[in-house]
Design a protein that fits this description.
The protein is α/β, with parallel strands linked by helices. Helices cover 42% and strands 14% of the residues. A 6-stranded mixed sheet has the order 1-2-10-7-8-9, sandwiched between helices. The radius of gyration is 20 Å and the shape is globular. The protein folds into 2 domains: 6-58 and 167-328, Rossmann fold, CATH 3.40.50; 76-157, Rossmann fold (3-Layer(aba) Sandwich), CATH 3.40.50. It has helices at residues 6-10, 34-40, 59-73, 88-99, 116-127, 138-154, 169-187, 205-217, 236-252, 283-296, 305-316, 336-339, 353-356; strands at residues 30-32, 43-48, 78-84, 105-110, 131-135, 159-161, 196-201, 222-227, 269-270, 323-328.
């Protein structure tokens, strides 16, 4: 486990101004997917952020190193985390917030299409004593988010609102730092320089950080994002805005990246693999999941990484012979220590049952 991020080595001024607490086993490994390479006709590698922590892996681990530390530095007494009812961000916020000593955590949920992980994620948060609130539509959700924040503030709890990945410049720093990490791994011969890096795009912060790093530091290849959230919430303009906001934040902290302002035209974003919407199954995604499991024994998921892999496999058809790096952002760490302590569904408020169980059950 590294003690400090590479970003602090590149910009020492940040050490005293930006909070950071190591959580993951970084640098995460890079592996050659030899069998998948043989099948596709490209040279395919994978960045294993999925297993970069013994507690909870994936891109959220990198993010929480900065976000939870920021909450502690600011002296906040409670956390509010928000997202879809099966949100991996909510789960990671709860797990890492709990480990950091936060005893007052509220999770605000909105609905999403049912997937088996929804029940598991919700019940793990329940087992950790999180106060859970559901917003059945966007207006109600917004009202409950504001009222929850104000209630904690008035009671002297000083809440910290965990940002959605793309909604905070601090969270973007996590994958700006990751860009330095993969650049060094390439320089040290752990993998060749890829022509393309494929990464999942939800709210956009992960991709924004990696794209910003490619612009600022070079040496990493072209970053291609694959959109898995509705276009109104994430698109080229929004990602460019997230990048530019991070640039302004770093400049305010005294770190000058010396790069031009990001434009929508700079953003490599693939839109064609979301299917009917967020967390909806797609034939292409399932085929990619099956192929990677059969060839490499690796697990992907229907909501995020399966769709990203499907997009990359389609892209490879036009770029055979190129080198590709798939950035695995889903947690694959065994959650048995939490799952073994899950409450029964009959212990859950009836208000939540329609949102965390299948209508087919």
């Amino acid at each position: 486990m590294r003690e400090r991020p590479r970003l602090f080595e590149t910009y020492p001024v940040l050490k005293e101004k930006v909070a950071f607490s190591p959580l993951g086993n970084f640098p995460s490994p890079v592996e050659h997917l030899k069998k998948l390479s043989n099948v596709t006709g490209a040279d395919v590698w994978i960045k294993r952020d999925d297993c970069a922590s013994n507690i909870y892996g994936g891109n959220k681990c990198r993010m929480m190193e900065w976000i939870i530390a920021d909450a502690v530095k600011k002296g906040r007494k409670s956390l509010i985390t928000w997202g879809a009812v099966g949100s991996n961000q909510i789960l990671s916020s709860v797990i890492y917030g709990h480990l950091a000593g936060f005893k007052d955590i509220t999770a605000l949920y909105n609905d999403q299409p049912f997937q088996p992980y929804v029940t598991k994620n919700f019940l793990i948060s329940t087992s950790l004593g999180v106060k859970q609130v559901i917003g059945k539509n966007i207006p109600v959700y917004g009202i409950k988010l504001i009222s929850t924040y104000m209630s904690k503030l008035l009671r002297g709890k000083r809440p910290y609102l965990i940002p959605l990945v793309g909604s905070s410049p601090v969270s973007v720093l996590s994958y700006l730092d990751a860009a330095l990490e993969i650049k060094k791994q390439i320089q040290e011969g752990y993998c060749p320089k890829p022509n393309y890096i494929f990464i999942t795009v939800g709210t956009g912060g992960t991709a924004a950080g990696l794209m910003l790093g490619a612009m600022a530091f070079g040496g990493t290849g072209k970053v291609m994002g694959v959109r898995v959230l509705e276009k109104v919430f994430v698109n080229e303009r929004i990602i460019a805005w997230e990048m530019n906001r991070a640039i302004r934040f770093l400049e305010k902290m005294g770190a000058d990246l010396s790069i031009h302002k990001a434009k929508a035209a700079d953003i490599g974003l693939i839109h064609d693999f979301i299917g009917d919407g967020y967390a909806e199954n797609t034939k292409e995604g399932q085929a990619a999941i099956d192929l990677v499991r059969d060839t490499e024994g690796l697990d992907l998921d229907v909501t995020y990484t399966g769709k990203t892999m499907a997009a990359m496999l389609d892209f490879i058809k036009r770029k055979k012979g190129s080198t590709f790096l798939f950035w695995h952002t889903l947690n694959t760490v065994d959650l048995s220590p939490y799952i073994d302590k899950l409450p029964d569904l009959n212990e859950v408020s009836k208000d939540f049952i329609p949102f965390i169980t299948s209508t087919d059950s």
